[in-house]
UniProtKB/TrEMBL annotation:
Keywords: Carbohydrate metabolism, Isomerase, NAD
Any one Pfam family match given in the protein's UniProt record, by short name: GDP_Man_Dehyd
Source organism of the structure: Dyadobacter sandarakinus
Protein name, entry field: UDP-glucose 4-epimerase
Pathway linked to the protein: Carbohydrate metabolism; galactose metabolism
EC number of this enzyme: 5.1.3.2
Amino acid sequence: MKILVTGGAGFIGSHTVVELHQAGFEPVIIDNLYNSNHGVLEGIRKITGKDFPFYEMDCNDTEQVRELFRKEQFDGVIHFAAYKAVGESVEKPLNYYENNLISLLVLLRAAKEFNVKSFVFSSSCTVYGQPEHLPVTESTPRQPATSPYGNTKAIAEDIIRDHVHSKPGLKAISLRYFNPIGAHESALIGELPNGVPSNLVPFITQTAAGLRPSLTVFGSDYDTPDGTCVRDFIHVVDLAKAHVKALELLDQQTDQDYYDVFNVGTGEGYTVLQLISTFEEVSGVKLNYTIGPRRPGDVEKIYAQADKVNNVMKWRAEKSIAEALRDAWNWQKKITFEK
């Protein structure tokens, strides 16, 4: 099966390309390199021993996307490409709605036109907002999103569901990620944000490597064990493997209007300070951090109940938070000190 991976040079996308290859799929990458770079493709090649087709293009470009679908004849699509910074989305909401939703519409129309059968969407636990009860299950009511980024994911899920139910010949799954961290154990690919990171772990590793003077923890007065936010952190390689399982599940479905959602998490919550402490243990580096004010758009605490993904998709997280932080640190050391 030939699979289009949008945003395939990004953090989660690049790891998923590796796992797709190892599972016998044929990945094709498109990426506009807005928040990634060509070096990632070299890392993928070193891990897999193969150069995968790569197209530098924007998913919002209807004609380019249609031409690519016509040329490659895809069996499935995994759609990662999106803007993803919560704070930036609060500052620039129109950019997020335009980029994240138009790209989805372009891809869904192309998938229908060229008879693509399977679609996996990169969604997020942000669709739950701040849930009233924890852990969250897939039937937990979606709360109003706390950021425009989160709202784009909720709207996108609704678009995909409604489209699939119109029977276009497409089956789809939305994977609601919790918090991906880590890197490939080879340290050949990992999280490589352009500019100031929007995620916690790159900030931690860049501070530990001396690239940043200190780390700011946003808020210490939440109703959590130590006052800092609680998240369900998942190793990116585990998350990448979930996409392979999603494609396999879609391939088994006989209903032409099949659509479902899955939480992809470990089922355990860790505070920001617990994450920092674990990083210090596995790295042997004492972090310089300060406590700052709360950040707009942040949810106080959220973690998954993973029973559905375990039982239906036959996937479960295998790697620990310590392994994820070790791999993230090895990746940071490689790109910082081995240039």
